[in-house]
Each structure stands twice: as C-alpha cells, then as structure tokens.
Write the structure tokens for this entry.
Amino acid sequence: MKLEISASLNYRLSEPVDLMLQIEAADGHGQHVIDASLDLGEPDVVARVPAADGLCEPIWLRASGSLRAEYRALVEINRPDTDFRALAAVPLHRLPAEAIPYLNESRYCPSNKFHAFVERRFGDHEGGAKIGRMRDWIESRFTYVSGSSDAETGALDSFVERRGVCRDYAHVMIALARAAHIPARMASAYALRVSPQDFHAVAEVYLGGDWHLVDATGMARASETARICVGRDAADISFLTAYRDIAFVDQSVKVERATARRLAEQA
Amino acid sequence: MKLEISASLNYRLSEPVDLMLQIEAADGHGQHVIDASLDLGEPDVVARVPAADGLCEPIWLRASGSLRAEYRALVEINRPDTDFRALAAVPLHRLPAEAIPYLNESRYCPSNKFHAFVERRFGDHEGGAKIGRMRDWIESRFTYVSGSSDAETGALDSFVERRGVCRDYAHVMIALARAAHIPARMASAYALRVSPQDFHAVAEVYLGGDWHLVDATGMARASETARICVGRDAADISFLTAYRDIAFVDQSVKVERATARRLAEQA
Amino acid sequence: MKLEISASLNYRLSEPVDLMLQIEAADGHGQHVIDASLDLGEPDVVARVPAADGLCEPIWLRASGSLRAEYRALVEINRPDTDFRALAAVPLHRLPAEAIPYLNESRYCPSNKFHAFVERRFGDHEGGAKIGRMRDWIESRFTYVSGSSDAETGALDSFVERRGVCRDYAHVMIALARAAHIPARMASAYALRVSPQDFHAVAEVYLGGDWHLVDATGMARASETARICVGRDAADISFLTAYRDIAFVDQSVKVERATARRLAEQA
Amino acid sequence: MKLEISASLNYRLSEPVDLMLQIEAADGHGQHVIDASLDLGEPDVVARVPAADGLCEPIWLRASGSLRAEYRALVEINRPDTDFRALAAVPLHRLPAEAIPYLNESRYCPSNKFHAFVERRFGDHEGGAKIGRMRDWIESRFTYVSGSSDAETGALDSFVERRGVCRDYAHVMIALARAAHIPARMASAYALRVSPQDFHAVAEVYLGGDWHLVDATGMARASETARICVGRDAADISFLTAYRDIAFVDQSVKVERATARRLAEQA
C-alpha cells in the first residue's frame, strides 16, 4: 500500500517565534518514504534534530511574519494488519528498557486511577484479548464530537464525558492499557479513511515483543497508516509547537491511496 | 423507630481556633429530638446560629488547648421508607426556589461532565426509576474502601476509581442525578447499620415534591436515619470545620435502636 | 444614578429544551427597577420562580426552534461606593446564617488550597484592608484576556495562569477572601464602564455586616452596578442555562447612564 | 567526596506481585560506584534492565510474602558545584534530541499554565540567572511540610498551596523552567544533609550543554549527591513501584560522608 500525503500549514506570527514541527512521515518501522518534499519558506533558522529512536525528527524553526509549511510525500506501508488480539503481553521483567517509561502515568493519562475499573471490567482477559476488549468498549461507548475537547482535556475527563476526538480516544485507550500494566504510547500519523481528514492520533500498545497500532475510533488501520512520531501522549507529539502565541490561518491534510500516475511519475 | 445516638470528639488545639460544629440531629422533617445533651467543655466562645432551613444549626466555638464534645440524643424517626423509584421527577419549571441551586455543579460534583454517560446509560428511564438505576449501578460497581479518598477527592475521581467511602458514593450519586436534571444534595446523618459506625453521608434527591434519601452504599434507610444537616456536597456538611490546623486525638459515634430502659428513663 | 439597560439574546434550539434565564436586574438591595420589559417571544412554557432572597428570580422556559429574549430596564442605583477597605470583618461566630455557606469551597473556588498563600501574603492586614490588598494584588498581576478561559476554568487555574475574564478575576478574589475566612460570593450584574459591554461578574464580600462589591478588574463600581443575581460562583449565576445543547446566534448587552429624554418618557 | 549510602526497604506482600526497584546509585555522569551490594532476599524473579541512558537500571522482582531490600554502597562524587547561574540557556534549535522531551508538559508538571507568571516574574533574566531566581523564589515562599502532599499532588496544587516536600519543590521548579523553555527533569538521589534522611528528589535543568542539579529546598548540593535515576517527574523515578497493593512495614535511608575506616576497608 502506497500513500500519497500532503499537509499544508499556514499561521500568522506577530514577532520572531521558535516553532517545532513534527509533520514528516518517519522512515522505517514498517514504512518507507519513497519520496518527500518539505517547503518551509524562508525562516530565519531551520534545524533538524536527528531522531533518537528513528521515529521522529523534529524540525526547529525561528520565523516571523508567517509560517507556511507545505509537505508532500509518497510513503509505502509494509506493515501488516496484525491481529493484536491474539498476542500475549510481555511479562514486566522482560520488557525492553525503551518500553518501561510507557507503563508510567503521563500528562494526559493518569492511568493509576483506572486500576479498579480495568481489573473489574477486563480482568478476565489477558494481553491482546484484553486490549481488544478495551478498544471495543471505548468505541461502543464514546461519541466522536469535533471540538468537544481542548488542550486541557485528559483521559479522566474523557472517560467521564464519553466523547472526544482522536486524541481523546487514544488517551483513554492508553490509560486503560497502562492500568493493566501493558506499555502504551501515542503516535501521530497520516491515516487513510480518517474523516474529516486531519492529522490523526492513535494508541500503540506493546504486545508480543513489538508495538501495535490500536485505534479506538475505528478509523485507522496499521496497513494504511504512516506514522510521524511517538510519545507518552499528546504532550509529546504535537505537529506544531509554538513557543509564543501564534494565530491559525488555515491548514489542510490529505491522505490518499497513491494513483498509478503518481507512481509512474515517481518511477 | 427511636434512635439512641452518641458522638464524642476529641481534638488537640495548639492555639485559639475558631471551630464550627455540625453534629446535632435536626428537629423536624420526619424526625423529632425527644431528648439531647451537648457538652462542649468550657470554650471561650459558643454561639449557635439559628438555622435558615430548619435543618442545621451550626455551633461556633472558639477554644484553645483542646476540643472535647460529647453529644447524646434520643431521636424518633417518623419518616417512612418511601419507594422513591415510583416517584416522578418534578418538571424543571415547577421546582421550588429552594431546590434550584441543587441542580448546579458544586465543589465535588461537577455534574455537567456526566451528561453523555447519564443519557446513554440511564436515558431509558425517568424520575425515581432513573435514580434507582443509578443507585444500583453505583452499588454494584463500586467498592467501599476505608481510607481510599481524601478531602480532594471529587465525583470525577471516584467515578473513575470505582471505590471510596460514603461521601464518595454520595458525590457520584449526586453528580449523576444532577446530570439528569434532578436536584440532588448531600445530608450528614446518624444512621443505624452503618459499619464501621461513624458520621454518615448520603445523597438526597428531589422527587415527587420532596427530598428522598438515596444511599448508594446500601447501608442507610430513611426510617432509621437522623439527619444532621444538608448542603451541596461534602464542602457544606462537615461535622467539624477548624479555621486553623488542629490535631485529631480520638472520636467515636454510636447509633442504636433505643432500648426499653432508655425509653423508660425518658418517660 | 439611573442606568438604562438592554440585553438581547438569540439562540438556535434544535428541539424542545428547558432553559433558565437570569437576566433581569433585581429590585431591592440598593437598586430600584423603575421600569422594565422582557419579551421572550412565544415559548411553550414560561414560569417565574419567586426569589428566596430577593435577589434573583430565575425564569424557566421551554422552547423549540429559537430563543429570543429582549430585556430593557431603567434602574436607579442608590447604593453608595462604600470604602470597604475601612470595614471590619465580622467575627465568625457572629455571621448570620445566610453568610455561612459563602465561607465554604465551591465548584470554581477551592479556597482551602489558598490558606498558606493568603496567610503569608496578606496576613498583616485584617478585614476590609486585607480584601483591598487582595483586590489590588489581583489587578496588578493579572491580565484581562478575552477567550482565555472556559467553563472548566477555576480559581486554581486562573491563579497560576495570571489571566482571565471577569469571572476568573472574581473566582480568584472569592477564593482568596474565603481562605481568609471572610464570606465571599459572586454576583452577575449590569455595570457601566464594562468594556467590551457584556454581562459582568463581580465578587461580593461580607464586611461590617453587609455585602460589598469588589471588582478586581477595576471596571465596576457599586454605585453604577445593577445586580442580577448572586451565588457561590459562576456555577450559580449563569444568565442562560440550557438543559440540552443549543447554538449561539448573537447576543448583546448595553448599559448606559439614563438620558434626560428616557427619564422624561418615563415620567 | 565519598558517600557511604545505605537503604533498607521492608514491605509486606499479600500475594505474588511484580515490583520495580530503582534504588541503586548510578555509575557515571559525575559519580563512581566504588563498591556496592544489594540483598533482595529470595524473590521468585529478579531481572535487571540494562539502562538506556546510563542513569538508571531498574530491577524487576516478582515476590510474595515480603520484600526486603538492603542496599549499601560507597560512591565517589566527582561532580563540581557548578554555578549554574552563570550558564547560558541553549537555543531551542541546538538542543540535543535527548533534551527535547523535557520541554514538554508531564504528569505532575503542566508547565504551559505557568507561561504568563514566568514571563512577568522572571522575564528580565535569562538562562541560569533566570533559573536561579526561580529557585530562590520557591525557597523563600514555600514551606517544607512533611505529609502535606500525596501521589495526586502536582505542580499546580503546590504552586497554590505554597508548601510540600522535596518532590513538590522539584515539580514547581521543573514547571517554571519548562515554562521558560528550558529543559528540566527530575532526579532521585541520595544526598548528604537531607533532613530527615530519606530518598531525595531534585530538579535538573539543561544549561550550557549539560544537566545541572537545582534543589529549591536548599538541601542537596551537586558535589554531595549520588543520582539514582532521572525522568520527567515523580511518575518516572519512584524507588519502588508495586503492580498490586502492598503494605509498608519500615524503611530507612542513610547517607554519610565516608569514614576513614570504611575507606580503609575498601582499600
């Protein structure tokens, strides 16, 4: 599966401001960037930070006046739609060092509060089967409501309010998984079938020795998703972080199955 | 049903401190205080505040060194165990002025967050039947765990944690009721069958033109409960409020069905 | 001082919805409604709830399609601009019953957390002088930023964020006053000099045996303010409470010193 | 400076439970472990996780009945007491990848809320001088009160309450630093002069190209502190994490300047 991706950001900046951009599809871990371009206009400073984990190379900008970013990419996804429900959890003492921090509470996922609920509601299942039940539970009880959450909304709020957008679904999924002592993190991504089209956020859980995408909104599939970066929760994976107030002008994201023509151009 | 009640408070005070005591059974509204005594030692100041609503007469003290309060009462409860499940909710526009504030969010009961959950989970029922389902839902899903909550714990936390003590059960009950637009408040009380014996807290909901006790812990019955005072939530009905740090020494509460001997003494 | 007030509300309702309106200037307590009209269109139900405290008569509506409310009033304010800084706090044990609930924590004003700060920062002053210092402290440290808060924002957030709108200034003022054991409540009001013109919210503190307006934004004066209603905090005094989702269309508030012509018409 | 460290943990476990222990002084980054022993009794499972960053090697245990851990170490600290106040902040676009996550909000440090306060209060200073002012501000305004916080307490609460223990001082320090766009993290440590002796927590800020210890309690110095591990905040660096309820029996920590005798034994 090859995805043709484009993203366009347009913001107004009143004075010189530091910005961190995380909008490029990662290369590796089940996906390959065949071709990509990123036009950032002429900011005062541009610096790419080599990724520590091969999953995210944030770009720093310092700009004034405006930020215009145009990203286009052709990405091949080689990742199968693994049936994570069949996978076993890794015993805690066998987790690799890099997975351990994802057992801990984070800004938007105060997972310890969910222990009793998770034990009672999902205690009869283990590993992937448990994660699957959690996912289904969220999907069946939550309503996707655009604009129903903001930068303050965490998993506790969303769990009670029973509604949210992709980040809120992912936060609840992550909080439940961690409460069951299964490492869980958040990935930003470009995914087919996300409606309305936008940057997407999904949970990833560590099962059977690897990370697996779990999307409680039901929109994204592993085989059709290009990951941008991963982190503890929404606090880490913002596509644009501004270190001073900036004003939204417009923004668009488009993710499509690559056409024969685009592939021919590429070849 | 006559209840014999005793309560004993013993606190150490380092310096002169203002204290508000709310430990006397109210006289009226389905209960009659046959006999009562309150020994407060010799504080510097004692002042009783005439109750606005016939339900609570707080006593102000200013004391130093120690607070010792000994309360004993014989209270007749005339209140029936109404089947609130059969009662209708009062249409909002017919609520009396005094019930309206109990529709609003309060310190520990941010009820607006529960709208979607309440609509989805209990939307098929109305009035008392809805309240009954909520009560049963809480009782079946929550675990009573002494010491599992503190003065910071609100209905949001308890709803997620699925555990608490009487005040937490009451907070969740109140939050759910208000989210269904049914006025709900909290009462402090002496109740038979509360184990371990202590000051008790229950929800009260406004149905069929009156307030009805609803105890999601399943311990208190209206016919066996002597109310002390009522308020929006735990922020209003504390049995002892100290306006400076004080140190707990010991405290006990005893509620029993009045014996023939005690009744004979009284006669 | 006579104020000419007009308020216009326009909301779209998708289905029959219960609404509670609190937009009429109260009659009494330092202000007199000379003339007023309220046009509510033709809702299915209209019911006025007699005020318990002479300060607020909420109006219940049930309507569908739209809510259009047009309120006009001519109100004489007889309330002086008392110098509350010179007033003494009422000893706790001499507070009237109606003032006591305003010592307690409420939805948006978890005042107990502010004890240490208040003791340290304002501990050298008493009563009105202390309230005055608190007011000045807030005004000098906070920035009024439209849109910087929402229905979730409480005094804790605002205290840290150092910004907000009138309700946030009032919440912090109330929290600080209560932390100093001075009763404090919130009033909705029409006030001259509020810019941009809108429903206004101010704190009221109980000093010298009466309630006194304190506006940390510096915009409202007691002698130029017509109170609508009072409550614990923003949870109680909303000008419009909808018991189902509704959509804002437009809204306006105008408060002016009454012109000679308007007064002549009235005479 | 050589430190002689001992730590003893004793907990009662009702059933087999997974535990993660982080109590060993790290080897490297300005400190050298000359000699160490760790006696864990005979748990069912012991597994050491190779550290990703050379700063923390968590040990997993599975045990039942009881957990007894006895740790002893002789650690040489080579780290100077750098005057961090003289250091410059690293421009955002020059931060190494490993420092970037420490700009983000975390479980206990919702730093974005502190922007306005930090700008207003500390905006006239830069880099280390700014950090120094923040540290002094916290130390002069906060009171160290044992037992005044719990696992729920975050920087927002502590900032308002103006009191706490070492973790709370560190959380506020971290939140303020991040709000000024300076990476900040939390380290657990053994430190001389901590009174009462216990596991200690301090902030570390990234200045002049390296991490520097900042202790707003004023107790720990870099040259007298043996780091155990680092993380975003208290959620990451707990000395003991139990994946089921366990009961505290007793625990002690002792940190002393190594005596000549101990050093002789070692030689």
Notes: The interface with chain C takes residues 113-117, 120, 141, 143, 156-157, 159-163 of chain D (CB under 8 Å). Chain D has five helices and twelve strands. The longest helix of chain D spans residues 127-141. The CA atoms of residues 120 and 211 of chain D lie 25 Å apart.
